Known about the structure:
Layout lengths: L7 E5 L1 H18 L5 E6 L3 H12 L10 E8 L12 E4 L9 E9 L3 H12 L4 E9 L12 E5 L5 E2 L15 E4 L3
Parallel strand pairs: 2-3, 2-5, 5-6, 6-7
Antiparallel strand pairs: 1-9, 3-4, 8-9
The protein binds inosinic acid and magnesium ion.
Amino acid sequence: MQTPKENVQVLISAAEIAARVSALAHDIAAKLPPDVMVVSLLRGSFVFTADLIRALHTCASPHPMRPQVDFMTLASYHKGTVSSGTIQVVRDLTEDVTGRDVLIVDDILESGRTLTYARDLVVSRKAKSVQIAVLLEKPGHRKVEIAADFVGFIIPDKFVVGYGLDYANYYRELPYVGVIAEG
Ligand code: IMP
Ligand code: MG
């Protein structure tokens, strides 16, 4: 039996991701204070977040970073590859973000609805500042005007999987970002 991952063509290799995550961590360390509160949006960003916080650990300049991490699950896709358009909080933060410098981390910025919802929620809870880091940005689908402060890769208009991103909750384990081959 063929395993699903044999259908996936590599778009961004594990080595390319690692190099970019390291560069992003340096950008983040240069712009954010050491005691940043990382808000990771589940489920898609758990792999990126795990690598990003360890990359932050290696950034001693301009100051050692000591991030705290919390998770929030927002759902915008019920199934398949088409957005439902509405956002639901499936699991809320457990930490209080009041007065904190928050870095929201997500896997991909597409319509912008998920990140807009997350940012507005964190702002409404009176965070001191809110910045956004995404691994991927897919242009051409924006439904809401929002920009990420830190972007790993701008990708073509294709549905991608791997490195935490899923199709029907599969493929998250792939160490690279890829495209499911047609046919
Ligand atoms: P947005 O709210 O439309 O910006 O969508 C953001 C969410 O949609 C992401 O956090 C992903 O979970 C999902 N998503 C968007 N595009 C893709 C894709 O190409 N592959 C996998 N998930 C995607
Ligand atoms: Mg997601």
